[in-house]
Amino acid sequence: MDRYVHGYSSQESKRLCDQAHVLADLLHKDVFYPQGALVLEAGCGTGCQTVFLAARNPFAKFVSMDISQPSLEKARQKLSDHGLANVDLLQGDIYDLRIPEQHFDHVFVCFVLEHLKDPVKALRGLYRVLKEKGTITVIEGDHGSFYCHPKSAEAMKAVECLIKIQALLGGDALIGRKLYPLLLEAGFSNPSVEPRIVYVDGSMPDMVEGFSRNTFTQMVRGVRDQALSLGLIDRKTWERGISDLEMAATDAGTFNYTFFKAVACRSAANTARLSPS
Asked: How far apart, in whole angstroms, are the C-alpha atoms of residue 31 and residue 195?
């Protein structure tokens, strides 16, 4: 994978798990695979999504892949802690899948494409290892969809720093809105994209803590030093922006954010079209 904007600290591992826990029902409570299905989870990281997928699909078999061996070791521990035995872990590069063609019944990708310089190349590789009529499920966020109350120009500037830094590292924090054309370009058929909207106010304490504070605001906080050193924002504006994000996570404010879930399939017609003559 390309450079990961959020880093690999223990604090980031905790943020990822908080995010997975609080968003599991919203993002993939409806992701079910039939008995005996072989599913590739590409870019599983430390296994925060894996444990939910595997628990909800006990009769499917998962191969959860990541390029980082330390992340896979953390995933292995999570699976053991949850008593899940229907997952095999695989170290691998999403750009260079050492997997036979048409090997998997389904593919699942969550919060991965946003970190890649060439998401279409990655998707084409996943297309290759997917069986005819198999499906791919892709879930991505879109930081440009964020807004909060009270409205704050400084908060938006702090969020824009994250978007710009991710772009400098080769990623795309706005990729959620692009899933439909990306899947088509990679050769998939009949993409269907649904927005999954997160709205949080003070009546939702679990979401306030799990998403507003520990997921989104923590994610923005993580690029502070880079944003200041690159001159993307001045210190006073940054501090006001973070303060306003914190205000939005109280009874006086609200958070709004949109994730996008896409499902598409591999078809024989598209395979023929993509094959070299």
From this structure: 15
Taking residues 176-189, report their average pLDDT: 98
Phi, psi of 200 (to 5 degrees): -130, 130
- Segment 214-220 shows an average pLDDT of 94
- DSSP code for 150: S
d(C-alpha 249, C-alpha 227), whole Å:
22
The HSE-up count of residue 222 (CA atoms within 13 Å, CB side) is 24
Residue type, position 59, single letter: F
Q: Which two tokens stand for residue 56?
A: 């909800």
Rg (CA), the chain: 19
Query: Tokens representing 264?
Result: 């598409």
Q: Counting Cβ atoms within 10 Å, is residue 103 exposed (0-12), middle (13-18) or buried (19+)?
A: middle
Nearest to 68 by CA among 158, 132, 8: 8
Query: What tens digit of pLDDT does each residue of 34-92 get?
Result: 999 999 999 999 999 999 999 999 999 999 999 999 999 999 999 999 999 999 999 99
Amino acid letter, residue 251: D
Q: How confident is the model at residue 106 (pLDDT cuts 50, 70, 90)?
A: very high
| Residue pair 199/216 in contact by the 8 Å Cβ criterion | no
Burial class from Cβ neighbours inside 10 Å (0-12, 13-18, 19+) for residue 32 reads exposed
Count Cβ atoms within 10 A of the Cβ of residue 34 and give its class: 0-12 exposed, 13-18 middle, 19 or more buried: exposed
For residue 37, the 8-state DSSP code is: -
pLDDT at 274: 57
CA distance 150 to 5: 27
* Domain boundaries of the chain, sorted by first residue: 10-274
3.40.50.150, 2.40.160.30, 3.90.1150.10, 3.50.50.60: CATH of 10-274: 3.40.50.150
